[in-house]
Amino acid sequence: MNASTVPTRYWHDLGDGRVQCDLCPRACKLRDGQQGLCYVRACEDGEVVLTTYGRSSGFCIDPIEKKPLKHFLPGTPVLSFGTAGCNLACKFCQNWDMSKSREMDTLAAAASPETLARAARDTGCRSIAYTYNDPVIFHEYAIDVAQASREQGIKSVAVTAGYICPEPRREFFTAMDAANIDLKAFTEKFYYELCGAHLNEVLDTIAYVYHETDVWLELTTLLIPGKNDSNAELTRLCRWLVEELGPDVPLHFTAFHPDWKMREVPRTPAETLFRARRIALDCGVQYAFTGNIHDPQGNSSWCHACGELLIERDWHSLGAWQLAVDGCCSHCGTQIPGVFESEPGTWGAQRRTLRFVEASAAAR
Asked: Could you report the per-residue pLDDT of 185-199, keeping only the tens digit for each?
């Protein structure tokens, strides 16, 4: 094994010269030398290994609002990184240059968990985000970074599609403090035909995170014209959220742009996002947001009890702050769902790239 390859635990021997990866519902069956669909988990010497431990497609400091998380440490900087590959096959992927990459050159940056945790601390980041591609596929690396980060007082944020099996899911989310899960649509047809996956497994993960963990949860649905943006589907999605989880889970509707294998589909009109947000609010979702468009109204937080402005946002920059130090609405005193500090962060919309000088051997 090379310096970036480590053993994994979630697999079993099929007894016919193949092993089965048990990390996600895809259950890839591999012979020696074969990679799973995710690209980063492979069969070597009769066991499943992670081939990209300690290697990344890059490190950046972003505003937490970009993840997107609106009610988790607003205004603070988050150290963001990802690797390569993905365990879904979304034809509309907006980060396809990383998630669909099969080139090791994509993973030119190396950093150990301890290096990342110290970097987050030293740059004033309140959290680390596992993002750009799905962190469940670099399960071992993400968990090690999260554990090292907790020792430095740094929180961990998973940006994921939630396509993971129950046992590794428990271990993964035990290490996380917040998550934004992509609920890509609300039909099995969409998941099967456009993502190569299944809806129910994602709904199961969302329900598990909300009901069985202390992880702060927000959801995102990328609206694609003619694919998942009908009034009927959006109403079913929002009603499921309110009935199965509760009204306090923030829901983000974001705009699609033509990319990867769906370049013929037009951009999402702003009116589609406005309509989706109205449907969500009418269904009882307390905090519904629009994203990837300029919409201060739909980007800001408004008290679900009195309707007054709580947190003003213009893109990723904060304006008026109307939360009391205890996280209550300063107008009516209602407790606002979220993870808030006594004052908002001041990071704003800036984005900063980080580079580490570290030998690959240090990332073992």
From this structure: 999 999 999 999 999
What CATH number corresponds to the domain at position 160?
3.20.20.70
Interatomic CA distance for residues 353 and 355, integer angstroms: 7
CA distance 26 to 38: 10
Tell me, yes or no, whether 363 lies in a domain. no
Q: Rounded distance, CA 272 to CA 225, Å? A: 8
What is the spatial distance between Cα 213 and Cα 184, in angstroms, rounded to a whole number? 22
Residue 321, domain member (yes or no): yes
Contacts of 356 (CB under 8 A, 6+ apart): 59, 109, 110, 111, 115, 119
Do 82 and 36 sit in the same domain of this protein? no
DSSP state string for 236-278:
HHHHHIIIII-TTS-EEEEE----TT-TTSPPPPHHHHHHHHH
- The model's pLDDT over 141-182, given as tens digits with 9 standing for 90+, comes to 999 999 999 999 999 999 999 999 999 999 999 999 999 999
**Two tokens, residue 296:** 């201060």
Integer Cα distance of 328 and 285 in angstroms: 18
Residue 360 forms part of a structural domain: no
182 & 196 share domain? yes
pTM, entire model = 0.94
What helix, strand, coil percent values describe the chain, rounded to 5? 30, 25, 45
Dihedral sign computed on CA atoms, order 68, 177, 201, 160? positive
Nearest to residue 285, comparing CAs of 235, 224, 213?
A: 235
Residue numbers of the domain that contains 66 = 55-354
List phi, psi (to 5°) of 46.
80, 15
Whether a cis peptide bond, with omega within 30° of 0, leads into 68 is yes
Q: How many domains does the chain have?
A: 2
Contacts of 294 (CB under 8 A, 6+ apart): 314, 315
